[in-house]
Design goal:
Rossmann fold; Protein arginine N-methyltransferase domain-containing protein; S-adenosyl-L-methionine; 15 strands; binds S-adenosylmethionine; six-stranded antiparallel β-sheet; 383 residues; alpha/beta; Hnrnp arginine n-methyltransferase1; 3 domains; protein-arginine N-methyltransferase activity; PRMT_dom; Arg_MeTrfase
Length: 383
């Protein structure tokens, strides 16, 4: 930080502020563990995609100044240095920065990489950067809301014409079959039976009647079992129709407000196989395309779509539907998806699907998607 109004001359003196206590407890605390960093590093589809995107674009990195936002173990900063960057600023809010510093020294990159501990929002750099690398994606892309911090870094530090790695992101939804829908329903029933015998015991042992809380317990359990998205590694065999891309971001131009605001987008899911549609699966991809002034010579795609060969630690977010939707090949599920941040914790998300099925025979009249009075609404949170 500035000392007497000036930036320190030695970049090893740079530092920012620690996250505030609530955000640390809600979000940052897990990232301080090497155990968690290891989990991300050994997701080779993820780490390999970044490695390829950086190393196959060495011409873009050669002699450039790079900023790694949320450096964690420092891996992306190390890749950038290996690709020939002149200087890399690796900014990490948590104590894992100390391990990153050790790794950088151990790999003899201390003259190129400066690890700076502090939140990117509070750090000052002695110069603007040509490139920003960051792995900021959470479940269903937006959980964790770390993109906010990347945009802060972009607006504060990226030179005009500079590029972000990744540069673009897309969100998808797909209709699927899922055995989990039934098992979660059974678990919900078991929880309610457990509650009934618990309230009996309370009356028998202590003479206290608790049945006035039956509805509240039911609501709580319903929210947990039926209205919370579940992590799953979905097999492509479960897909009952094609995925629909409902949102795209160009990270160079998207505004911070667009990311913060809730949004509603339309989707159309064409059913290919006769099946009860037991859930919607949500996933994302990111693209490494560089910027218009500094395009990547080798574009890379990191996809979290169902993939039998190689899944990622993000898996997919599965939104179970109670009851499932009966659909036939040629039918269409037409709907809107509304995504917002949870009021009590901006790192978590609220997802609402409002949808109806348009049978194949009715489709000529319903060519213009318009939700009807028969639409249903399903609420979920992503915890
Ligand atoms: C998903 S991890 C990625 C770590 C590493 N870049 C990698 O690819 O393995 C995100 C990291 O960003 C850090 N982080 C998140 N928000 C930050 C912020 N505003 N300022 C600095 N670091 C942040 C977290 O502590 C975490 O270590």
């Amino acid at each position: 930080m500035e000392q007497n109004g000036r930036l320190p001359e030695n970049s090893s003196d740079l530092k920012g502020d620690a996250p505030d206590a609530t955000d640390f407890a809600n979000y940052f605390c897990t990232y301080a563990f090497l155990f968690h960093q290891k989990e991300m590093l050994e997701d080779h589809k993820r780490t390999g995609a970044y490695y390829t995107a950086i190393m196959q674009n060495q011409a873009q990195f050669k002699d450039k100044v790079v900023l790694d936002v949320g450096a964690g173990s420092g891996i992306l900063a190390i890749f950038a240095a290996q690709a020939g960057a002149r200087k890399v600023y690796a900014v990490e809010a948590t104590d894992v920065a100390k391990h990153a510093r050790k790794l950088v020294q151990h790999n003899r990159l201390g003259s190129i990489i400066s690890v700076i501990q502090g939140t990117i929002e509070t750090v000052e750099l002695p110069e603007k950067v040509d490139l920003i690398v960051s792995e900021w994606m959470g479940y269903f892309l937006l959980r964790e809301s770390m993109l906010d911090s990347v945009l802060v870094a972009r607006d504060k530090f990226l030179k005009p014409g500079g590029a972000l790695y990744p540069s673009h992101a897309r969100l998808y939804v797909a209709p699927i079959r899922s055995n989990l829908t039934h098992s979660r329903q059974n678990e919900f029933r078991n929880a309610m039976e457990g509650w009934a015998s618990f309230t009996d015991d309370m009356q028998r042992y202590y003479g206290v009647r608790m049945d006035c809380l039956n509805d509240s317990f039911r609501d709580e359990q319903k929210q947990y079992y039926q209205q919370t998205a579940a992590w799953a590694d979905v097999s492509p065999n479960q897909l009952a129709g094609r995925p629909w891309c409902f949102k795209q971001y160009d990270l160079l131009t998207v505004t911070p407000q667009e990311i913060i605001d809730s949004f509603k987008e339309h989707f159309e899911l064409q059913i290919i196989e006769a099946a009860p549609i037991e859930a919607f699966a949500g996933f994302f991809d990111v693209q490494f395309k560089g910027s218009p002034e500094n395009p990547a010579s080798f574009e890379v795609l990191l996809s979290t779509a169902p993939d039998p060969q190689c899944s990622t630690h993000w898996g997919q977010q599965v939104f179970h539907l109670y009851p499932p939707i009966n659909a036939q090949p040629g039918d269409r599920i037409s709907g809107d998806i509304n995504i917002s941040r949870k009021k009590e914790n901006h790192r978590l998300m609220q997802v609402v699907f409002q949808h109806c099925i348009i049978p194949r025979q009715q489709q000529p009249q319903a060519a213009t998607p318009k939700l009807q009075s028969t639409e249903r609404v399903d609420f979920f949170s992503i915890e």
